[in-house]
Amino acid sequence: MKDEIFISDKKIAKLAKSVAKTFSIDEEEATSTIYEEWDLVEALFHAHTKVKAVHRHFVDEINHAYRIA
After folding, report:
1. Alpha-carbon distance 69 to 57, whole Å?
2. Could you read off the pLDDT of 1-13 as tens digits, one per residue?
3. Which of 1, 9, 11, 20 has its CA 20 to 30 A from that of 34?
4. What is the C-alpha to C-alpha distance for residues 54 and 43, in angstroms, rounded to an integer?
């Protein structure tokens, strides 16, 4: 099991697009949120290789952390 993983720009862009759509924000703001929560994103990509799964768990964590439910 690797301690560090490479997350491609393509995956980050796809995640940002999904997050932007979910929270009704622009992709720039979504990308900013992703990098603010980078440790979480990295852990999620380590556990789930698919962007769709990472998105689902990321949104759940953000909703819980910021009480946006």
Report:
1. 14
2. 456 678 999 999 9
3. 1
4. 9
